[in-house]
Write a structure and sequence with these properties.
heterodimer; A: about 450 residues; alpha+beta; 26 strands; about 20% helix; B: mainly beta; seven-stranded antiparallel beta sheet; five-stranded antiparallel beta sheet; 3 helices; 42 strands; elongated
Chain lengths: ~450, ~525
């Protein structure tokens, strides 16, 4: 074992602690991996049963890059036609992008509606229910987008993610596609990766696509020259700088096929850990560039749709959180111009695989918590009474991790967890504001 | 202190014992016993074999070998090969530089048979007769002569292509058998089958030719093809009144040399591929028969792991010094015999093991320097091997010694363990020191191979240093224990113990398993 660096090491240790052999012959081998994954997820995202008081937003678990959203400005070009009792409507000027999911207000009339369907560059649209006001044409309106799915608008290829390794025949050598560093929209990245793979394959045509609905990538070879596609995401020598994780693939070699679709979606969010950041606004104490989340009931009470305004949003609420980590949020204002928002989050960890290329998110120094936790689960399944000891050690180790994490924050922070008796003892670093605030 | 259960699996009590239901095998049963012996309560690696004529290979496969003492002083070794050649060795292990003393006997098989006779009167020398299973005229080696000759007075009908197949000495006559007839020589001359002789038909027309004859407890038995067994009723003082009686028509003999007597029993390889025991209730009384392999609960295992194509040339030998009966057998897909089945008759219930470390075609015994007959075999590679040699080498070739215990769920400790999942924690190996090498132990749980563990066969620090003869005590055979961690959970466990390196050996007294009983529920996957 190499100091518990890899998942394979940890699984072996779990097996040995649970009285099983680690030579691959244990019938509990796959079971041990399942338990390691379960413990891994619960510690990274939160919710470990080994210590109910532990719920840290571990710094090592957060996404390397924030998720970047682009908020869209309102659309109010031309007019619309609506008919009472009908969900169908018509734009006088077709929007160039789809307004599905946008809200719609008609000037001088009550009600806020949501556009259920619309195709880019089309004039027709449908509301999510029958229009309940008087029919009319040439109605002035404004459509605005408040609800956003937290999916990255851009993916960044850098020096740690600029390789893709694969084979085109089972007995062939491993081919390495080199990607150009830069920021790509998901669709552009799919095209670029496929082109790089085609160059490395030197023969078969390889295409790539991104499905904005499933949020997954697919790469397909035409199989020319009796070839296929065999991703080498574990055996490749460039595993540590491979883009497969960014594209949503596991750390494993994948069986030969002409087409491969990623396992994980883009933007699978385990938990949000900080307010969102927005780089517009007044930057005073009340508007500090932070977008705070509040619960949905409070949000609806404080920011009813009928009174929604244009401006820089400073509040959001979670509307939907799906099993795969998809989160849809609603902001309290719609922006005047395209506005960038950064979302810091802890991604849902991908499944660990029983190989030397699969590295847990949990740092090596804490890896024994995985061993203890998974050993407890496995021993419990085996009716081995040692499970209680392992569970206790897992809980203690989690607590030790919390202590260590907080001690570090205390040492490197200014006043982390300090109780200050008097306000005059606080040292304020004043924020300097340049330029003239909007409302002056 | 260990809180679990420790359960010893004794070894050496049973040999191969395979034909019961897997859940009904006793804990000391072996389901594999390859190149091991079971004696002194130990399972130990079978001894090696010395390649006798290591530098002078004989021409062809050796089909018969005999330790010939023409007198009380001179020891000769006679070997016959399948190329029709006879070789004679005077003890220098070179067989006259591999030059045969006779040739042209045809393509001989292991069914050739040596019979010692002669010395009919004080003036006559000992004679060694060679029956070639009917391929050639009966040959005789007179005393310490350097070549075999044809018998002086063969029966009138022993002419091409009919020659006697087998023979033996009984009631001072050399008996020879050809077709369905028995021929007995003159009591005063074993080479004389033309005067003062006997010629008898043995149930003519019934079965095939007589293929074997043997004298057991003073009674002459003849075995015919077709599973017929007869014996000579020679109770009358007048040999003219002797006649043959039928003993059985349901079991017979597979080959002329496949019959021996061991202790109070006659063991014969039978035509169905197993070994029949003819236990005599008294010297002249009733005969009871039984299939040894069936009674030892390993007949099906035998049939699954051996080829019956070798039983027609089977040899048998009884090694009195160690109470071992040996039978040559053929493993599957081989064209010549290549293994020995060993019956250890030290205990009332024979314990059976397989020796698969050479290509024995024929068996014989050769007296060692102390006059103790030791087993030897003629090999398909043209060499004679002296068995029971201290080295764990077959000639110069290392071999694997291995045994595997039956699966046990430890119901012999407590019946409630039958269904319980057990967390196996460790294994204690009780052994006798053998040397600076290891044994490997494959661990099987519930039918799956789990791991291979190793443990040394010596104890560090007990090697001999300087010592004075007659003053210091040398090392004793000390049984030691060594705990080895086990991994795995299951209901039943089995161990395969083995080593195979040059001169590596083992003597294992018992395996003790430490386990903690767990739940009874089905494992979830």
């Amino acid at each position: 074992m190499a100091q518990f660096r890899t998942t394979a090491d940890i699984v072996d240790s779990v097996l040995l602690r649970s009285g099983e052999t680690s030579n691959g012959n244990s019938k509990y081998e796959s079971r041990a991996l399942e338990y390691v994954n379960r413990i891994h997820r619960s510690i990274v995202i939160g919710g470990s049963e080994f210590n109910l008081e532990v719920d840290e937003a571990w710094s090592w678990a957060r996404a390397q890059r924030p998720l970047v959203l682009e908020l869209k400005p309102k659309y109010n070009t031309g007019s619309i036609t609506l008919t009472k009792g009908s969900e169908a409507g018509t734009f006088s000027d077709a929007p160039t992008s789809s307004l599905a999911g946008w809200h719609l207000q008609v000037s001088g009339r009550d009600g806020v509606f949501k556009i259920a369907s619309h195709t880019a560059s089309a004039t027709a649209f449908e509301l999510d229910g029958a229009y309940d006001s008087d029919s009319g044409s040439g109605l002035t309106f404004q459509a605005f987008k408040l609800d956003y799915e937290l999916v990255p608008s851009y993916l960044v290829i850098d020096s740690e993610s600029n390789r893709i390794e694969f084979k085109k025949t089972s007995g062939g050598s491993i081919l390495t596609a080199t990607l150009t560093e830069g920021a790509y929209t998901p669709s552009a990245l799919a095209t670029h990766v496929a082109a790089a793979m085609a160059t490395a394959a030197a023969g078969p045509a390889i295409t790539g696509s991104y499905d904005s609905v499933t949020k997954k990538f697919t790469f397909t070879s035409d199989g020319a020259g009796s070839t296929t596609l065999i991703p080498q995401f574990a055996s490749g020598t460039n595993s540590y700088r491979s883009a497969h994780r960014l594209l949503g693939f596991d750390d494993e070699d994948i069986a030969a096929a002409l087409s491969h679709t990623s396992t994980y979606i883009q933007g699978g969010i385990g938990r949000l850990i900080e307010p969102m950041t927005i780089y517009r606004g007044k930057w005073d104490n009340a508007d500090d560039g932070q977008l705070y989340g509040i619960d949905k009931l409070r949000f609806q009470k404080d920011y009813p749709l009928v009174r929604v305004q244009q401006g820089v949003p400073d509040r959001f609420c979670k509307l939907i959180e799906e099993a795969d980590g998809t989160i849809i949020v609603r902001f309290n204002k719609y922006v005047e111009t395209e506005t960038r928002i950064e979302v810091d989050y802890i991604p849902i960890p991908r499944d660990l695989k029983d190989n030397a290329s699969s590295i847990p998110v949990i740092p090596r120094k804490y890896a024994d918590v995985l061993e203890y936790g998974a050993s407890a689960d496995l021993s419990f399944e085996k009716s081995d009474d040692r499970w209680q000891g392992y569970a206790q050690k897992a809980g203690l180790k989690l607590q030790a991790m919390v202590n260590q994490n907080r001690a570090e924050l205390h040492r490197i922070g200014e006043r982390f967890a300090q109780v200050v008796a008097r306000a005059d003892m606080l040292y304020h670093r004043r924020k300097l504001i340049y330029g003239v605030p909007e409302d002056n | 202190m260990y809180q679990g259960v420790t359960a010893p699996i004794p070894l050496g009590g049973l040999g191969l014992f395979t034909d019961n239901s897997p859940s009904d095998l006793p804990p000391n049963a072996l389901i594999e016993a390859k190149n091991i012996m079971l004696s002194n309560g130990l399972a130990q690696k079978a001894p090696g074999a010395l390649k006798y004529n290591s530098n002078h290979q004989l021409d062809g496969s050796i089909v018969a070998v005999h330790d010939w003492w023409p007198d009380t002083v001179n020891q000769r070794l006679i070997a016959v090969t399948d190329t029709g050649k006879i070789y004679r060795d005077i003890g220098d292990r070179v067989f006259s530089l591999a030059v045969p003393i006779n040739t042209g006997l045809g393509s001989l098989t292991p069914n050739c048979m040596f019979v010692e006779g002669g010395n009919e009167t004080a003036a006559r020398s000992k004679k060694l007769f060679l029956f070639t299973n009917g391929l050639a005229q009966l040959k005789v080696l007179d005393g310490d002569e350097t070549a075999f000759a044809t018998v002086a007075n063969p029966a009138a009908d022993w002419t091409t292509p009919n020659y006697p197949r087998v023979g033996c000495v009984h009631r001072n006559r050399l008996w020879a058998f050809m077709k369905q007839r028995a021929y007995a020589s003159d009591t005063a001359d074993h080479e004389n089958f033309t005067s003062n002789n006997l010629t008898q038909a043995v149930f003519p027309g019934e079965g095939g030719d007589i293929i074997g004859a043997y004298v057991f407890k003073g009674r002459l038995f003849a075995f015919k093809e077709g599973n017929f067994v007869y014996y000579l009723d020679d109770s009358d003082a007048d040999s003219d009144n002797w006649f043959w009686r039928k003993l059985s028509n349901s079991f017979g003999l597979s080959a002329p040399n496949a019959i021996i007597d061991a202790l109070d029993d006659m063991l014969a390889g039978n035509a169905s591929g197993t070994v029949t025991s003819y236990a005599a209730t008294d010297a002249l009384g009733d005969i009871e028969s039984a299939d040894i392999f069936r009674s030892a609960n390993m007949e099906h295992y035998l049939r699954a792991n051996t080829s019956t194509s070798g039983i027609s040339v089977m040899h048998a030998l009884y090694y009195e010094a160690k109470k071992l009966a040996m039978f040559t057998y053929r493993s599957c897909y081989r064209t010549s015999n290549d293994m020995l089945i060993i019956l250890d008759v030290n205990k009332q219930q024979p314990r059976i093991t397989f020796w698969q470390k050479g290509t024995p075609q024929c068996l014989g015994q050769r007296k060692d320097v102390n006059g103790i007959p030791r087993p030897m075999y003629g090999s398909a590679d043209g060499y004679v091997y002296l068995l029971d040699h201290e080295d764990r080498l077959e000639g110069s070739t290392a071999y694997e010694g291995a045994f595997r215990t039956a699966y046990t769920d430890f119901r012999f400790v407590d019946a409630k363990f039958v269904a319980a999942q057990k967390h196996f924690d460790f294994l204690w190996v009780e052994f006798v020191e053998e040397g600076p090498h290891n044994i490997s132990i494959d661990v099987f749980i519930d039918g799956y191979f789990v791991e291979t563990i190793t443990t040394p066969m010596n104890i560090t620090g007990t090697y001999l240093d300087t010592f004075d003869l007659d003053v210091d005590r040398l090392g004793e055979r000390t049984t030691q224990s060594d705990p080895i961690p086990l991994h795995g959970t299951g209901r039943r466990i089995s161990f395969r113990v083995y080593n195979s390196g040059s001169n590596q050996s083992f003597q294992i007294a018992s395996l003790t398993v430490g386990f903690r009983p767990g739940g009874d529920g089905a494992t979830k996957f």
